Amino acid sequence: MPMSTPTIHKGLAGVVVDTTAISKVVQETNSLTYRGYPVQDLAARCSFEEVAYLLWHGELPNDSQLEMFTERERSYRRADRSLLSLLNRIPDNCHPMDVVRTAISFLGAEDPEEDNAAQNLDKSLRMMAVLPTIVAADMRRRRGFDQIPPDVHLGYSENFLNMCFGEVPDPVIVRAFEKSMVLYAEHGFNASTFAARVVTSTRSDIYSAVTAAIGALKGSLHGGANEAVMHDLIEIDRPERAREWLETKLANNEKIMGFGHRVYKHGDSRVPTMKAALADVASATTTSDGGRWLAISDELEQLMVAATGIKPNLDFPTGPAYHLMGFAIESFTPIFVMSRITGWTAHIIEQEGANALIRPLSDYSGPVQRTLSA
Q1: Which of 187, 268, 315, 347 is catalytic?
Q2: Gyration radius (Cα) of the chain, Å
Q3: 18 classed as catalytic
Q4: Pairing outcome for strands 31-34 and 23-26
Q5: Is the pTM for the entire model greater than 0.85?
């Protein structure tokens, strides 16, 4: 009896491979939820530190828990001399994601402790705390500026922005940045999170799993999409050029970055919050560029939805928002790492708690078995 042909799910589309208690897209309300809380509510009312605690511990912290958590996070912010020396030796013409990936790998090489649940929570907090120092130091060295050390008296977002720009910007900018961090923190079994869980399933260490996740996030179809969005907006240059640009792209069957998402049926639930944050940033910046990028992105969104029915995802408003904040385009994805480290490590810890080696099958399509000629 001939064997039936297996059903191939390219990209694992629609395949449910495990359970998770960390996040869910609730289709009935079109809301991404973290531990049951809609992300738009968390972005409106919570700090990034509170959301990190929620992802790792399952509940939002009370005042004393938050105080203890933030105190520990601030104590871990400094990068030691050996790490800073390594960063300075990395070529400054490589992508900043290469720097972040190398730094996390180095942290793993320096950490002799074996993994367990309690230690991995502490290692997660250490990575969350030191990543802004790494990203900011690399950003400044590329511009020929000295590193600004972390300030333990500032909140997470304020500290990072101060390390990047030498001052804490307008509170509107700080809050918009913090909202982006909350929105990017977690998103189910996306490509980078799944990569981290695959590595964890082999009983490898947390740093190896995070390094694998960073490698996945670097790709333009995943974390690099917010960079691609800004490059596209710069290429369009003016709102009146958006129609011709889009029509040419669609005629050539080219992917329009920042649009569409596999898990949303009615548009990315994070977009309204980030679009409002982008508008706030545009109003708070002193240059005229804010209105320009808003106008281009609004025009492109309307044209894209009218032509294809495909709506924007979170990367679409985040790209111009980060650009207006003053970040170099190639730094957008490392900032994504700073946020998603919380979701990745929550999944790593969850995977370890009920582990099974992730090892899918494939359907062979090569030559039939054959023999070597004499």
Answers
A1: 315
A2: 22
A3: no
A4: antiparallel
A5: yes
Whether 261 is a known active-site residue: answer yes
How much is the average pLDDT of 12-16? 77
Selected catalytic residue, list 261, 268, 280, 323: 261
What whole-number distance in Å separates Cα of residue 350 and Cα of residue 338?
Answer: 20
Mean per-residue pLDDT for 216-232? 90
Residue 178: closest CA among 317, 59, 333, 43: 43
Query: Which residues, 6+ apart, have CB-to-CB distance to 322 below 8 Å?
Result: 180, 226, 230, 331, 332, 335
Strands of the 37-38 sheet, one edge to the other: 23-26, 31-34, 37-38
| Number of neighbours of residue 259 by Cβ within 10 angstroms | 20
User: Taking the mean position of all CA atoms in its chain, how far away is CA 172?
Assistant: 22
Please give the Cα distance from 176 to 319 (Å, whole number).
Answer: 13
Query: Could you give the angle at which helices 48-57 and 117-142 cross, rounded to 10 degrees?
Result: 150
Section 90-95 average pLDDT: 92
Handedness of CA 148, 163, 88, 92 (dihedral sign): negative
Task: Residue 193: count other Cβ atoms within 10 Å of its Cβ.
Answer: 26
Average pLDDT in the chain:
93
Tell me the pairing of strands 31-34 and 37-38: antiparallel
- What is the C-alpha end-to-end distance of the chain, expressed in Å? 34
**Tokens 């589309």, residue located:** 13
| Sole residue written with tokens 């802004």 | 132
Structure tokens of 179?
A: 């909202």
Query: What are the C-alpha distances in Å from 142 to residues 164, 178, 223, 335, 372?
Result: 11, 24, 21, 16, 55
Task: Kindly write down the DSSP assignment for every residue of 164-197, as one continuous string.
Answer: HHSS---HHHHHHHHHHHHHHS--SS-HHHHHHH
- Rounded to a whole number, what is the largest CA-CA distance in the chain? 78
Residue 363 structure tokens: 């359907």
Cα–Cα separations (whole angstroms), residue 164 to 134, 135, 158, 272: 10, 8, 10, 27
Beta bridge partners of 32: 25
pLDDT tens-digit readout, 19-49: 999 999 998 888 999 999 999 999 999 999 9
> Which pLDDT belongs to residue 117?
74
- DSSP β-bridge partners for residue 26: 31
- How, if at all, do strands 23-26 and 37-38 pair? unpaired
Instruction: Please give the Cα distance from 256 to 219 (Å, whole number).
Output: 15
